[in-house]
Write a structure and sequence with these properties.
alpha/beta, 8-stranded parallel β-barrel, 18 helices, 18 strands, binds 3-methyl-2-oxobutanoic acid, binds zinc ion
Protein backbone atom coordinates (compact mmCIF):
# COMPACT_ATOMS: atom_id res chain seq x y z
CA UNK A 1 0.00 0.00 0.00
CA UNK A 2 1.21 3.48 -0.80
CA UNK A 3 1.88 5.98 1.95
CA UNK A 4 -0.16 9.15 1.91
CA UNK A 5 1.58 12.51 2.02
CA UNK A 6 -0.26 14.97 4.23
CA UNK A 7 -0.72 18.31 2.49
CA UNK A 8 -0.51 21.02 5.12
CA UNK A 9 -1.62 24.32 3.65
CA UNK A 10 -0.27 27.43 5.33
CA UNK A 11 -1.56 30.05 2.87
CA UNK A 12 -3.58 31.70 5.62
CA UNK A 13 -0.63 31.83 8.05
CA UNK A 14 2.85 31.78 6.43
CA UNK A 15 1.34 32.84 3.08
CA UNK A 16 -0.37 35.82 4.63
CA UNK A 17 2.96 36.84 6.16
CA UNK A 18 4.11 37.83 2.65
CA UNK A 19 4.57 41.60 2.65
CA UNK A 20 1.34 43.15 1.33
CA UNK A 21 -0.65 39.90 1.26
CA UNK A 22 -2.94 40.48 4.22
CA UNK A 23 -6.49 39.23 3.73
CA UNK A 24 -9.78 40.25 5.25
CA UNK A 25 -11.79 37.92 7.47
CA UNK A 26 -14.37 37.05 4.75
CA UNK A 27 -11.54 36.40 2.28
CA UNK A 28 -9.83 34.05 4.74
CA UNK A 29 -13.03 32.13 5.40
CA UNK A 30 -13.74 31.90 1.66
CA UNK A 31 -10.23 30.59 1.02
CA UNK A 32 -10.55 28.09 3.86
CA UNK A 33 -13.76 26.74 2.24
CA UNK A 34 -11.90 26.49 -1.06
CA UNK A 35 -8.99 24.64 0.59
CA UNK A 36 -11.49 22.18 2.04
CA UNK A 37 -12.97 21.71 -1.47
CA UNK A 38 -9.41 21.14 -2.73
CA UNK A 39 -9.16 18.47 -0.03
CA UNK A 40 -5.96 19.60 1.65
CA UNK A 41 -5.39 17.63 4.85
CA UNK A 42 -4.46 20.45 7.23
CA UNK A 43 -5.22 24.17 7.10
CA UNK A 44 -2.96 26.36 9.20
CA UNK A 45 -5.50 29.10 9.78
CA UNK A 46 -3.41 31.65 11.67
CA UNK A 47 -1.27 32.62 14.64
CA UNK A 48 -3.90 33.33 17.33
CA UNK A 49 -1.73 35.20 19.86
CA UNK A 50 -0.46 37.62 17.22
CA UNK A 51 -3.65 39.72 16.97
CA UNK A 52 -7.37 39.62 17.79
CA UNK A 53 -8.09 39.32 14.05
CA UNK A 54 -5.85 36.24 13.78
CA UNK A 55 -7.53 34.71 16.82
CA UNK A 56 -10.95 35.33 15.31
CA UNK A 57 -9.92 33.97 11.90
CA UNK A 58 -8.83 30.70 13.49
CA UNK A 59 -12.04 30.49 15.58
CA UNK A 60 -14.26 31.21 12.59
CA UNK A 61 -12.48 28.69 10.40
CA UNK A 62 -12.69 26.01 13.10
CA UNK A 63 -16.40 26.67 13.47
CA UNK A 64 -17.18 26.66 9.73
CA UNK A 65 -14.86 24.28 7.96
CA UNK A 66 -15.46 20.55 7.75
CA UNK A 67 -12.93 18.05 6.49
CA UNK A 68 -9.38 19.25 7.01
CA UNK A 69 -7.68 19.47 10.39
CA UNK A 70 -7.51 23.10 11.50
CA UNK A 71 -4.23 24.22 12.99
CA UNK A 72 -3.16 27.26 14.99
CA UNK A 73 0.45 28.41 15.38
CA UNK A 74 2.06 29.17 18.74
CA UNK A 75 5.57 29.97 19.93
CA UNK A 76 6.83 27.68 22.68
CA UNK A 77 5.35 30.01 25.28
CA UNK A 78 2.49 29.42 27.65
CA UNK A 79 0.45 32.44 26.51
CA UNK A 80 0.78 31.43 22.86
CA UNK A 81 -0.28 27.84 23.49
CA UNK A 82 -3.27 28.98 25.54
CA UNK A 83 -4.30 31.43 22.80
CA UNK A 84 -4.06 28.71 20.16
CA UNK A 85 -5.98 26.29 22.39
CA UNK A 86 -8.65 28.95 22.96
CA UNK A 87 -9.02 29.80 19.27
CA UNK A 88 -9.35 26.11 18.38
CA UNK A 89 -11.84 25.40 21.13
CA UNK A 90 -14.93 23.50 20.00
CA UNK A 91 -13.24 22.10 16.91
CA UNK A 92 -13.38 18.38 16.28
CA UNK A 93 -10.21 18.10 14.29
CA UNK A 94 -7.60 20.50 15.57
CA UNK A 95 -3.84 20.79 15.85
CA UNK A 96 -1.55 23.10 17.79
CA UNK A 97 1.71 23.84 16.01
CA UNK A 98 4.38 25.09 18.35
CA UNK A 99 7.87 26.20 17.38
CA UNK A 100 11.14 27.44 18.81
CA UNK A 101 14.39 28.48 17.14
CA UNK A 102 17.29 26.05 17.28
CA UNK A 103 20.11 27.41 15.09
CA UNK A 104 23.02 29.25 16.73
CA UNK A 105 22.27 32.38 14.70
CA UNK A 106 18.70 32.49 15.99
CA UNK A 107 19.70 31.52 19.53
CA UNK A 108 22.24 34.34 19.55
CA UNK A 109 19.68 36.86 18.30
CA UNK A 110 16.59 35.76 20.24
CA UNK A 111 17.92 34.28 23.46
CA UNK A 112 20.75 36.70 24.18
CA UNK A 113 19.51 37.55 27.70
CA UNK A 114 21.25 35.78 30.57
CA UNK A 115 17.94 34.42 31.87
CA UNK A 116 18.12 31.87 29.05
CA UNK A 117 21.66 30.86 30.09
CA UNK A 118 25.08 32.37 29.81
CA UNK A 119 26.73 30.02 27.34
CA UNK A 120 25.38 28.57 24.13
CA UNK A 121 25.20 25.16 25.84
CA UNK A 122 23.04 26.58 28.63
CA UNK A 123 20.80 28.39 26.16
CA UNK A 124 20.41 25.22 24.10
CA UNK A 125 19.30 23.36 27.24
CA UNK A 126 16.75 26.07 28.00
CA UNK A 127 15.34 25.74 24.50
CA UNK A 128 14.93 21.97 24.90
CA UNK A 129 13.11 22.58 28.17
CA UNK A 130 10.84 25.25 26.63
CA UNK A 131 10.00 22.97 23.70
CA UNK A 132 9.16 20.12 26.05
CA UNK A 133 6.94 22.28 28.28
CA UNK A 134 5.13 23.83 25.30
CA UNK A 135 4.35 20.43 23.80
CA UNK A 136 3.13 19.06 27.12
CA UNK A 137 0.85 22.06 27.57
CA UNK A 138 -0.41 21.81 23.99
CA UNK A 139 -1.26 18.16 24.59
CA UNK A 140 -3.70 19.25 27.28
CA UNK A 141 -5.73 20.94 24.50
CA UNK A 142 -5.40 18.37 21.72
CA UNK A 143 -3.74 15.05 20.93
CA UNK A 144 -2.55 16.46 17.65
CA UNK A 145 0.58 18.54 18.33
CA UNK A 146 3.19 19.60 15.82
CA UNK A 147 6.63 20.78 16.82
CA UNK A 148 8.94 22.85 14.57
CA UNK A 149 12.62 23.50 15.15
CA UNK A 150 12.79 26.92 13.56
CA UNK A 151 15.79 27.41 11.24
CA UNK A 152 16.46 23.68 11.38
CA UNK A 153 18.12 24.11 7.99
CA UNK A 154 21.04 25.89 9.69
CA UNK A 155 20.97 24.02 12.98
CA UNK A 156 23.81 21.80 14.18
CA UNK A 157 22.60 18.29 13.38
CA UNK A 158 23.59 16.81 16.76
CA UNK A 159 21.61 19.48 18.58
CA UNK A 160 18.67 19.11 16.20
CA UNK A 161 18.55 15.40 17.10
CA UNK A 162 18.55 16.29 20.79
CA UNK A 163 15.67 18.80 20.46
CA UNK A 164 13.61 16.49 18.29
CA UNK A 165 14.09 13.47 20.54
CA UNK A 166 12.86 15.60 23.44
CA UNK A 167 9.88 16.81 21.38
CA UNK A 168 8.85 13.27 20.48
CA UNK A 169 9.22 12.19 24.10
CA UNK A 170 7.06 15.14 25.23
CA UNK A 171 4.24 14.04 22.94
CA UNK A 172 4.64 15.81 19.60
CA UNK A 173 2.91 13.80 16.88
CA UNK A 174 4.31 15.70 13.89
CA UNK A 175 7.92 16.82 13.67
CA UNK A 176 8.57 19.65 11.27
CA UNK A 177 12.11 20.39 10.12
CA UNK A 178 11.81 23.78 8.46
CA UNK A 179 14.31 25.31 6.11
CA UNK A 180 13.19 28.67 7.44
CA UNK A 181 15.64 30.73 5.38
CA UNK A 182 15.54 28.70 2.16
CA UNK A 183 19.25 27.92 2.57
CA UNK A 184 19.42 24.17 2.01
CA UNK A 185 20.03 22.30 -1.21
CA UNK A 186 17.96 19.18 -1.94
CA UNK A 187 20.85 16.84 -1.04
CA UNK A 188 21.43 18.57 2.27
CA UNK A 189 17.76 18.60 3.14
CA UNK A 190 17.48 14.90 2.28
CA UNK A 191 20.50 14.14 4.49
CA UNK A 192 19.02 16.12 7.38
CA UNK A 193 15.78 14.10 7.35
CA UNK A 194 17.70 10.86 7.03
CA UNK A 195 19.96 11.81 9.97
CA UNK A 196 17.12 12.90 12.24
CA UNK A 197 15.06 9.81 11.50
CA UNK A 198 18.13 7.76 12.32
CA UNK A 199 18.82 9.38 15.65
CA UNK A 200 15.41 9.06 17.26
CA UNK A 201 14.31 5.77 18.77
CA UNK A 202 11.02 5.16 16.91
CA UNK A 203 10.91 7.40 13.82
CA UNK A 204 7.72 5.79 12.51
CA UNK A 205 5.77 6.81 15.60
CA UNK A 206 5.64 10.41 14.34
CA UNK A 207 5.06 12.11 11.00
CA UNK A 208 8.04 14.03 9.64
CA UNK A 209 7.23 17.23 7.85
CA UNK A 210 9.01 19.48 5.33
CA UNK A 211 8.56 23.26 5.41
CA UNK A 212 10.64 25.00 2.77
CA UNK A 213 11.13 28.62 1.82
CA UNK A 214 12.04 29.65 -1.68
CA UNK A 215 14.95 32.05 -1.19
CA UNK A 216 17.06 30.07 -3.67
CA UNK A 217 14.12 28.86 -5.72
CA UNK A 218 14.57 25.35 -4.24
CA UNK A 219 11.49 25.09 -2.03
CA UNK A 220 9.60 22.56 -4.17
CA UNK A 221 12.74 20.52 -4.92
CA UNK A 222 13.67 20.43 -1.22
CA UNK A 223 10.17 19.35 -0.21
CA UNK A 224 10.29 16.48 -2.67
CA UNK A 225 13.78 15.50 -1.44
CA UNK A 226 12.35 15.30 2.09
CA UNK A 227 9.63 12.92 0.87
CA UNK A 228 12.34 10.67 -0.56
CA UNK A 229 13.99 10.70 2.88
CA UNK A 230 10.80 9.61 4.63
CA UNK A 231 8.87 12.85 5.31
CA UNK A 232 5.12 12.36 4.99
CA UNK A 233 3.86 15.90 5.33
CA UNK A 234 4.62 18.93 3.15
CA UNK A 235 3.85 22.44 4.33
CA UNK A 236 3.12 24.70 1.41
CA UNK A 237 1.03 27.61 0.16
CA UNK A 238 -1.13 28.34 -2.86
CA UNK A 239 0.90 30.16 -5.52
CA UNK A 240 3.92 29.75 -3.23
CA UNK A 241 3.15 32.99 -1.38
CA UNK A 242 4.86 33.57 1.95
CA UNK A 243 7.65 35.30 3.81
CA UNK A 244 10.24 36.92 1.47
CA UNK A 245 10.50 34.72 -1.65
CA UNK A 246 7.64 32.60 -0.35
CA UNK A 247 7.02 28.97 0.59
CA UNK A 248 6.95 25.80 -1.46
CA UNK A 249 4.03 26.13 -3.78
CA UNK A 250 1.24 23.64 -3.14
CA UNK A 251 0.36 23.15 -6.78
CA UNK A 252 3.98 22.36 -7.67
CA UNK A 253 4.66 19.81 -4.93
CA UNK A 254 1.29 18.12 -5.35
CA UNK A 255 1.66 17.78 -9.11
CA UNK A 256 5.28 16.66 -8.81
CA UNK A 257 4.13 13.84 -6.53
CA UNK A 258 1.22 12.99 -8.84
CA UNK A 259 2.95 13.21 -12.20
CA UNK A 260 6.14 11.50 -11.01
CA UNK A 261 4.39 9.23 -8.53
CA UNK A 262 6.38 6.20 -9.66
CA UNK A 263 9.52 7.83 -8.20
CA UNK A 264 8.15 8.18 -4.70
CA UNK A 265 5.53 5.50 -4.12
CA UNK A 266 3.27 7.92 -2.29
CA UNK A 267 -0.14 9.43 -2.93
CA UNK A 268 -1.81 12.74 -2.19
CA UNK A 269 -5.53 13.25 -1.65
CA UNK A 270 -5.79 16.72 -3.20
CA UNK A 271 -8.54 17.28 -5.81
CA UNK A 272 -6.15 18.77 -8.32
CA UNK A 273 -8.88 19.91 -10.71
CA UNK A 274 -9.51 22.80 -8.30
CA UNK A 275 -5.89 24.01 -8.28
CA UNK A 276 -6.30 26.75 -10.86
CA UNK A 277 -9.54 28.00 -9.35
CA UNK A 278 -7.89 28.16 -5.92
CA UNK A 279 -4.85 29.91 -7.31
CA UNK A 280 -7.03 32.62 -8.91
CA UNK A 281 -8.97 33.06 -5.67
CA UNK A 282 -5.80 33.56 -3.63
CA UNK A 283 -4.40 35.90 -6.27
CA UNK A 284 -7.52 38.07 -6.12
CA UNK A 285 -7.61 38.08 -2.30
CA UNK A 286 -3.94 39.00 -1.91
CA UNK A 287 -3.64 41.21 -4.99
CA UNK A 288 -0.58 39.16 -6.06
CA UNK A 289 -0.89 38.38 -9.77
CA UNK A 290 0.01 34.86 -10.88
CA UNK A 291 2.94 35.14 -13.33
CA UNK A 292 1.90 33.80 -16.75
CA UNK A 293 4.73 31.27 -16.71
CA UNK A 294 3.96 30.00 -13.19
CA UNK A 295 4.15 26.19 -13.18
CA UNK A 296 0.77 24.41 -13.13
CA UNK A 297 -1.52 27.43 -12.66
CA UNK A 298 0.03 30.17 -14.85
CA UNK A 299 -1.94 31.38 -17.86
CA UNK A 300 0.79 30.03 -20.16
CA UNK A 301 1.39 26.73 -18.36
CA UNK A 302 -0.47 24.82 -21.10
CA UNK A 303 -0.21 27.31 -23.95
CA UNK A 304 1.79 26.62 -27.08
CA UNK A 305 2.87 29.27 -29.52
CA UNK A 306 5.89 27.97 -31.45
CA UNK A 307 4.90 26.26 -34.68
CA UNK A 308 6.83 23.06 -33.93
CA UNK A 309 5.24 22.76 -30.51
CA UNK A 310 1.74 23.44 -31.83
CA UNK A 311 2.18 20.86 -34.52
CA UNK A 312 3.42 18.31 -31.99
CA UNK A 313 0.69 18.92 -29.42
CA UNK A 314 -2.05 18.82 -32.01
CA UNK A 315 -0.80 15.42 -33.18
CA UNK A 316 -0.08 14.03 -29.73
CA UNK A 317 -0.66 16.04 -26.58
CA UNK A 318 2.16 14.38 -24.68
CA UNK A 319 4.83 15.59 -27.11
CA UNK A 320 5.00 18.83 -25.15
CA UNK A 321 2.68 18.33 -22.17
CA UNK A 322 3.48 16.15 -19.17
CA UNK A 323 0.06 16.43 -17.55
CA UNK A 324 -3.46 17.13 -18.69
CA UNK A 325 -4.56 20.75 -18.39
CA UNK A 326 -7.98 19.59 -17.19
CA UNK A 327 -6.37 17.69 -14.29
CA UNK A 328 -5.29 21.00 -12.75
CA UNK A 329 -8.38 22.95 -13.82
CA UNK A 330 -6.90 24.68 -16.86
CA UNK A 331 -8.54 24.62 -20.25
CA UNK A 332 -7.14 22.07 -22.61
CA UNK A 333 -5.08 22.57 -25.74
CA UNK A 334 -4.38 26.24 -25.61
CA UNK A 335 -2.90 26.97 -28.96
CA UNK A 336 -1.97 30.64 -28.97
CA UNK A 337 -1.80 32.11 -32.39
CA UNK A 338 0.94 34.65 -32.81
CA UNK A 339 4.02 35.37 -34.84
CA UNK A 340 5.68 32.06 -33.88
CA UNK A 341 2.77 29.90 -34.96
CA UNK A 342 3.11 27.87 -38.11
CA UNK A 343 0.68 26.85 -40.85
CA UNK A 344 -0.41 23.81 -38.93
CA UNK A 345 -1.51 25.77 -35.88
CA UNK A 346 -3.30 28.32 -38.04
CA UNK A 347 -5.26 25.83 -40.17
CA UNK A 348 -6.05 23.59 -37.21
CA UNK A 349 -7.63 26.51 -35.42
CA UNK A 350 -9.72 27.34 -38.50
CA UNK A 351 -10.80 23.73 -38.65
CA UNK A 352 -11.78 23.74 -35.00
CA UNK A 353 -13.85 26.85 -35.57
CA UNK A 354 -15.64 25.00 -38.35
CA UNK A 355 -14.23 27.29 -41.03
CA UNK A 356 -13.57 25.53 -44.32
CA UNK A 357 -10.97 26.98 -46.64
CA UNK A 358 -10.63 26.05 -50.31
CA UNK A 359 -7.25 24.66 -51.26
CA UNK A 360 -6.41 27.54 -53.62
CA UNK A 361 -6.93 30.17 -50.89
CA UNK A 362 -4.70 28.54 -48.29
CA UNK A 363 -1.40 30.23 -49.25
CA UNK A 364 -2.96 33.64 -49.55
CA UNK A 365 -4.72 33.29 -46.20
CA UNK A 366 -1.62 32.08 -44.48
CA UNK A 367 0.32 35.10 -45.81
CA UNK A 368 -2.39 37.42 -44.47
CA UNK A 369 -2.18 35.66 -41.12
CA UNK A 370 1.61 36.11 -41.02
CA UNK A 371 1.28 39.83 -41.79
CA UNK A 372 -1.35 40.22 -39.12
CA UNK A 373 0.75 38.28 -36.60
CA UNK A 374 3.58 40.74 -37.18
CA UNK A 375 1.30 43.55 -36.11
CA UNK A 376 -0.65 41.98 -33.26
CA UNK A 377 0.76 40.33 -30.14
CA UNK A 378 -1.89 37.65 -30.10
CA UNK A 379 -4.45 36.68 -32.71
CA UNK A 380 -7.93 35.89 -31.50
CA UNK A 381 -10.61 33.84 -33.16
CA UNK A 382 -12.52 36.91 -34.21
CA UNK A 383 -9.46 38.11 -36.15
CA UNK A 384 -9.37 34.80 -38.00
CA UNK A 385 -13.03 35.00 -38.75
CA UNK A 386 -12.58 38.38 -40.44
CA UNK A 387 -9.47 37.25 -42.22
CA UNK A 388 -11.22 34.33 -43.82
CA UNK A 389 -14.38 36.23 -44.63
CA UNK A 390 -12.26 38.57 -46.76
CA UNK A 391 -12.69 41.25 -44.14
CA UNK A 392 -9.02 41.37 -43.32
CA UNK A 393 -9.49 45.12 -43.22
CA UNK A 394 -11.32 44.63 -39.90
CA UNK A 395 -8.47 42.68 -38.47
CA UNK A 396 -5.65 44.79 -39.89
CA UNK A 397 -7.16 48.27 -39.74
CA UNK A 398 -9.03 49.57 -36.79
CA UNK A 399 -12.16 51.65 -37.32
CA UNK A 400 -11.06 54.31 -34.91
CA UNK A 401 -7.65 55.65 -34.09
CA UNK A 402 -7.05 57.87 -31.11
CA UNK A 403 -4.99 60.80 -32.32
CA UNK A 404 -4.75 62.64 -29.03
CA UNK A 405 -6.18 63.26 -25.60
CA UNK A 406 -5.81 66.05 -23.12
CA UNK A 407 -7.32 66.05 -19.67
CA UNK A 408 -7.60 68.80 -17.13
CA UNK A 409 -8.29 68.15 -13.47
CA UNK A 410 -8.04 70.41 -10.45
CA UNK A 411 -9.38 70.87 -6.93
CA UNK A 412 -13.03 71.92 -7.02
CA UNK A 413 -13.19 71.56 -10.79
CA UNK A 414 -15.04 68.89 -12.78
CA UNK A 415 -12.53 66.88 -14.81
CA UNK A 416 -12.63 67.74 -18.50
CA UNK A 417 -11.25 65.74 -21.42
CA UNK A 418 -10.69 66.54 -25.06
CA UNK A 419 -10.10 63.76 -27.56
CA UNK A 420 -9.28 63.56 -31.26
CA UNK A 421 -10.57 60.40 -32.91
CA UNK A 422 -9.74 59.54 -36.51
CA UNK A 423 -12.39 57.54 -38.41
CA UNK A 424 -10.29 55.40 -40.71
CA UNK A 425 -13.13 54.46 -43.08
CA UNK A 426 -14.24 58.03 -43.77
CA UNK A 427 -10.99 59.89 -43.18
CA UNK A 428 -12.75 62.23 -40.77
CA UNK A 429 -10.98 63.53 -37.67
CA UNK A 430 -13.39 64.45 -34.89
CA UNK A 431 -12.43 66.45 -31.82
CA UNK A 432 -14.80 66.42 -28.88
CA UNK A 433 -14.82 67.61 -25.27
CA UNK A 434 -16.72 66.34 -22.25
CA UNK A 435 -16.75 66.58 -18.49
CA UNK A 436 -17.18 63.54 -16.24
CA UNK A 437 -17.22 62.18 -12.72
CA UNK A 438 -13.51 61.56 -12.97
CA UNK A 439 -10.88 61.92 -15.69
CA UNK A 440 -11.57 58.46 -17.13
CA UNK A 441 -15.30 59.07 -17.23
CA UNK A 442 -14.64 62.41 -18.97
CA UNK A 443 -12.45 60.70 -21.59
CA UNK A 444 -15.05 58.00 -22.27
CA UNK A 445 -17.81 60.56 -22.65
CA UNK A 446 -15.67 62.58 -25.07
CA UNK A 447 -14.87 59.43 -27.08
CA UNK A 448 -18.59 58.58 -27.23
CA UNK A 449 -19.26 62.01 -28.74
CA UNK A 450 -16.40 61.55 -31.19
CA UNK A 451 -17.63 58.17 -32.44
CA UNK A 452 -21.24 59.30 -32.42
CA UNK A 453 -22.74 56.73 -30.05
CA UNK A 454 -22.73 55.93 -26.36
CA UNK A 455 -21.89 52.54 -24.86
CA UNK A 456 -22.34 50.68 -21.63
CA UNK A 457 -19.08 50.36 -19.75
CA UNK A 458 -19.58 46.99 -18.06
CA UNK A 459 -16.22 46.74 -16.40
CA UNK A 460 -13.05 48.75 -15.97
CA UNK A 461 -9.93 47.44 -14.28
CA UNK A 462 -6.43 48.73 -13.97
CA UNK A 463 -3.33 47.04 -12.63
CA UNK A 464 0.30 47.83 -12.49
CA UNK A 465 2.47 45.47 -14.51
CA UNK A 466 5.78 46.94 -13.38
CA UNK A 467 7.01 48.85 -10.36
CA UNK A 468 7.78 52.42 -9.38
CA UNK A 469 6.15 55.79 -9.99
CA UNK A 470 6.55 55.30 -13.75
CA UNK A 471 5.08 51.78 -13.63
CA UNK A 472 3.24 50.53 -16.68
CA UNK A 473 -0.49 50.39 -16.08
CA UNK A 474 -2.61 47.82 -17.89
CA UNK A 475 -6.23 48.76 -18.39
CA UNK A 476 -8.94 46.28 -19.36
CA UNK A 477 -12.46 47.41 -20.20
CA UNK A 478 -15.58 45.53 -21.14
CA UNK A 479 -18.06 47.40 -23.30
CA UNK A 480 -21.54 46.01 -23.74
CA UNK A 481 -23.83 46.36 -26.72
CA UNK A 482 -27.13 44.56 -27.01
CA UNK A 483 -26.08 41.58 -24.89
CA UNK A 484 -22.67 41.12 -26.53
CA UNK A 485 -19.46 42.14 -24.78
CA UNK A 486 -16.25 43.49 -26.20
CA UNK A 487 -13.02 43.58 -24.29
CA UNK A 488 -10.37 46.19 -24.89
CA UNK A 489 -6.92 46.29 -23.34
CA UNK A 490 -4.00 48.69 -23.44
CA UNK A 491 -0.82 49.41 -21.56
CA UNK A 492 1.04 52.63 -20.99
CA UNK A 493 3.03 54.42 -18.33
CA UNK A 494 0.29 57.06 -18.64
CA UNK A 495 -2.80 55.42 -17.16
CA UNK A 496 -5.19 57.93 -18.75
CA UNK A 497 -3.71 57.18 -22.17
CA UNK A 498 -4.03 53.43 -21.44
CA UNK A 499 -7.65 53.98 -20.35
CA UNK A 500 -8.47 55.80 -23.58
CA UNK A 501 -6.63 53.25 -25.77
CA UNK A 502 -8.39 50.32 -24.08
CA UNK A 503 -11.78 51.91 -24.72
CA UNK A 504 -10.95 52.54 -28.38
CA UNK A 505 -9.74 48.93 -28.67
CA UNK A 506 -13.11 47.69 -27.38
CA UNK A 507 -15.02 50.00 -29.73
CA UNK A 508 -13.01 48.70 -32.69
CA UNK A 509 -13.99 45.16 -31.78
CA UNK A 510 -17.58 46.24 -31.42
CA UNK A 511 -17.56 47.89 -34.86
CA UNK A 512 -16.05 44.80 -36.44
CA UNK A 513 -18.89 42.81 -34.92
CA UNK A 514 -21.52 45.27 -36.03
CA UNK A 515 -20.33 45.29 -39.59
CA UNK A 516 -20.80 41.59 -39.76
CA UNK A 517 -24.10 40.07 -40.70
CA UNK A 518 -23.34 36.86 -38.88
CA UNK A 519 -24.65 36.61 -35.38
CA UNK A 520 -21.71 36.16 -33.07
CA UNK A 521 -21.40 36.35 -29.34
CA UNK A 522 -18.12 37.55 -28.01
CA UNK A 523 -17.15 36.80 -24.49
CA UNK A 524 -14.01 38.04 -22.81
CA UNK A 525 -11.16 38.55 -25.19
CA UNK A 526 -12.98 37.05 -28.12
CA UNK A 527 -11.93 33.58 -27.06
CA UNK A 528 -15.38 32.00 -26.77
CA UNK A 529 -17.96 32.56 -29.39
CA UNK A 530 -20.84 30.87 -31.07
CA UNK A 531 -21.43 31.16 -34.74
CA UNK A 532 -24.91 30.78 -36.09
CA UNK A 533 -25.48 30.06 -39.73
CA UNK A 534 -22.89 29.16 -42.32
CA UNK A 535 -19.87 28.77 -40.12
CA UNK A 536 -21.21 26.69 -37.25
O1 LIG B 1 9.62 29.07 8.32
C1 LIG B 1 9.43 28.64 9.48
O2 LIG B 1 10.32 28.18 10.18
C2 LIG B 1 8.07 28.73 10.01
C3 LIG B 1 7.82 28.04 11.30
C4 LIG B 1 6.87 28.75 12.15
C5 LIG B 1 7.41 26.64 11.01
O3 LIG B 1 7.20 29.25 9.35
ZN1 LIG C 1 7.81 29.42 7.24
Amino acid sequence: MKDTVIIFDTTLRDGEQAPGASMTMPEKVRIAHQLAKLKVDVIEAGFPISSPAQFEAVSRIVAEIQGPTICGLARALEADIRAAGGALEGGRNTRIHTFIATSDIHIDAKFSEDRFGRTIEEKRKTIVRMAREAIELARTYTDNVEFSAEDAGRTDIGYLCEVISAAVEAGATTINIPDTTGYCTPDEYFAMFAAVRNCISDPDSVVFSAHCHDDLGLAAANSIAAIRAGARQIECTINGIGERAGNASLEEVVMALRVRGEQFGVEVGVETKYLTETSRMVSVATGFPVPPNKAIVGRNAFAHEAGIHQHGVLRRRDTYEIMKAADVGQSAEQIRLGRHSGRHGFFSRLERLGIEVEEERRDELYQLFVQLADRKKEIFDEDLFHLVKGNEEHAMNPYYRLDGISVSVGTGKKPEAEVAVYHTRTGELRREKATGDGPVDAIYRAVNHAVGSSHELENYSIRSVSEGADAIGEVAVLVGQGGAYFKGTARSTDVLQASADAYIDALNRLEAYRSDEENMTFVGNGIMRSFHGGLA
